[in-house]
Structure formats: structure tokens, C-alpha cells
Amino acid sequence: MNVNLMENMIDKTNDDLLLETDSLTKCYGKVTALSNFSVKLEGNRIYGLLGRNGAGKTTLLDIITSRIFADSGNVKLFGQDAKNSQNTLAQVCYMPEKNYFIPNMRVSELLKTSAMFFDNFDMGYADRLCEKFKLDKRKKYKALSRGFESILRIVIGLASRAPLTIFDEPVLGLDAAVRDLFYRELLEDYTDHPRTFIISTHLIEESADIFEEVLIIREGELICRRQVPDLREMAFHVSGRPSDVDAAVSGLNVIRSEMVGNIKVSAVFDRIDDESRKNFRSHNVDVSPIPVQKLFIYLTNNGREGMQ
């Protein structure tokens, strides 16, 4: 397979850079969690950070927020070295998957404490979010269910109005209706108060519509960075008789092929021109879009499941 996923990456200027990582590497014993990871992100966008378990997503977020330090490489936030600037870190709200709240504190107390750390924290908005999500502010943290723990993180993250807000698996334990409420609330507040969000999640298909760009990590490396519309336009299945499919996809980037009975199905991730479309028609093959979730699986399966 010749994936060449980094081709045609979105060009970034340095004018509006919010976050820049340069050759980040982090190892845990013999396991490399991040390998020369470099990326530049602009402000006022919603980024999706995608990768399988163990791909390095949480390690990256922990390094960005100085919870841990890289073995080598650098991080800049708002143009400053993240490790040496408390003012910079005060502009970042990170809601990790693992909670570190004091168990005996009540939700109301946790909200007041959180407000002390963020200049833009809107307590009135936090109160309204608690009402919308039916979060009882009188309850102690230790009495919250897994779902309401996630809701508390959502409330703090959104109400912080931090210039950079990071959610790691924000909707764990939430049913579909509450997840939808979160997505709608995030987009509405993002529209009214533009800022940057980085959201790491496994629920890719349902959250893809809120992302402006996605970054896909595999084994500690950035393998793909695209705007979501590009992902959808470039990803499709080509199916038909094996010889017709092979001819139709010749020269294109095929990331997976399989036989379903007598039908061959090839997954293609490439930009298609008029000549390619004409080629599809001449070979009488069926072409259908690949869901974002399925594309993610194809791109991160490390050569398994029939990739060629």
C-alpha cells in the first residue's frame, strides 16, 4: 500500500498559530507513545483528534498541557514555550478522561473553584448548562454517576470559555440524546464565543459534523490531517467484478480490498478527477461513499483486514 496520507496537507501560516508542536517524542520503556510528532493548529477552530486506543492521543494532550513532559521536542502555545509560561497554561482548559476532582466536594463548589482558574469563566452560563443537562449542583462529586461526571466536565469546559479548550472523551456514559445536546450546545457557544476546541473521541461518525478538521494518529504518528468535507469527498468504495474494479481503481490510492462473494470491494482514499469518473463509468462499477467511522478504521488498522 502506498497511502501517502500526508500529501496535500492544509497549508498553515504562522500569523494565527495557537498551538505548535515540534518533533515531540515520548517513550514509556520500550513503547513509543509519540514519535517526532509535529503539527501546527490555528485558532478559532474545532479539531477532532482521532486514533485507536494506545495511539498516543492522551499522551499528546498531556504534553500540550504540561501534565507530563516529552523526552524530546517542544510545544508552543500562543507563540510561547508551554513549559515555561504559567500565563499561557492559564488560557487552556483541559478536561481529561480521568477525573481528578475531590470526591467530597459538591458540584457547586467545584464550579466555583474552576472559575478561579479561568478569566473568562461564565458562572451564569454554567448554571444554565447544569439546568439543561439536569446536573444537581448540590450533589457531591462522589455521588455522581459516570454520565454526570462527564456532564460536569462538559459544563466546566464550555463555561471556562478558555481560548483553548480540550476534551478527552467528553461523552463517556452519556446516552444519544444527551450527546446530541452537548454537540449542539458546543456549536452554539462556539458561534457566539469563538475559540479553539480539540476533541478526542471514539464516537467519530456522530461527532464528525462538528469538526472543521480532523487529525488521525496511528502508533504515535500523525498520518492524516484533513478538513472533514475533504475526507468525505476523497473516501469511497468501488465494487463490481474483480477485473473491472482493478481496472477502475488503477493508479488510485487503494487502502483496503476484500471479496464479498463474487464481488470485489475496494476502498479508495484519493482525489478524483473527471478522467477517473469516466474510468468508473466505462468499467461499470458501483461507487459509494465511505462513512467517516469506517474510513478511520481503514486508515488505522496497521495493514490488517485486507489492506493492500
Secondary structure: elements and pairs:
Layout: E1 17-28, E2 31-42, E3 46-50, H1 57-64, E4 72-77, E5 80-81, H2 86-89, E6 92-95, H3 107-115, H4 123-132, H5 146-160, E7 164-168, H6 176-192, E8 196-200, H7 204-207, E9 213-218, E10 221-227, H8 228-234, E11 235-240, H9 242-248, E12 254-260, E13 263-269, H10 274-282, E14 286-289, H11 292-299
Parallel strand pairs: 3-8, 3-9, 6-7, 7-8
Antiparallel strand pairs: 1-2, 1-4, 4-5, 9-10, 11-13, 11-14, 12-13
Walkthrough of the structure:
With 308 residues, the protein is of the alpha/beta class. The chain has two domains: 17-219, P-loop containing nucleotide triphosphate hydrolases (Rossmann fold), CATH 3.40.50; 231-299, Alpha-Beta Plaits (2-Layer Sandwich), CATH 3.30.70. It is built from eleven helices and 14 strands. It has helices spanning 57-64, 86-89, 107-115, 123-132, 146-160, 176-192, 204-207, 228-234, 242-248, 274-282, 292-299, and strands spanning 17-28, 31-42, 46-50, 72-77, 80-81, 92-95, 164-168, 196-200, 213-218, 221-227, 235-240, 254-260, 263-269, 286-289. The strands form three sheets. Strands 6-7-8-3-9-10 form a six-stranded mixed sheet, with helices on both faces. The chain has a four-stranded antiparallel sheet with strand order 2-1-4-5, with helices on one face. Strands 12-13-11-14 form a four-stranded antiparallel sheet, with helices on both faces. Helix 4 runs antiparallel to helix 5 (146-160). Mean pLDDT is 90; it is low at 1-15 and 303-308.
